[in-house]
Amino acid sequence: MSWMRRVLAVLAVCVLLLTGSAGCGSSDTGGTGEPEARDSATPVGRLLDATDEEGRRYREVDEEHAPEVGVEVQPDTDDSWDVRLTVRDFRFSPAGTEAKAVAGRGVAHLFLDGDLLVRLRGPEYRLAADLVPRGTHQLTARLYADDGTAWAVDGEPVQSTADITASDAEPTEATQPEEIEDQAPPARTAAR
User: In terms of Cα–Cα distance, which of 87, 70, 63, 68 is closest to 155?
Assistant: First the structure.
């Protein structure tokens, strides 16, 4: 009878080993006790052949799970601009984060007229006045995964753009008083 107990004990250990290894990593925490460990090990989205201006590939995710970004720009009293990003289904990664794509996580890149200004790990930025010459410009915020791929939906990057119009504080040549006096009066249009 003792040999039967040994055989049963060996079989029980084998069953435990088989079921234990089959269940490894299948819990909500990926078997590590930390939820993000599961997220980082899971493939996120589908890499596309399309790239942005910097040559970074797009990482396509379905619209339902895609992060979103909005950008708001306000002039400040010192002629600089306060930039504020609002994000949804996205969190900024701290410095030193491993270069892996994790759903809804990463950094934002700010572009001024298509040129990269800065990579952001938070929602706020002060844009210096000397970086915005006179005229109307486009400031674009685009979201990237930690592996450097751009988040995308339907083949388009997840981004938002705001217009910035900078003007000189001094009058231009066309508004000098002596030139205005020499010009013919403007044509008038009657309105009914």
Answer: 63
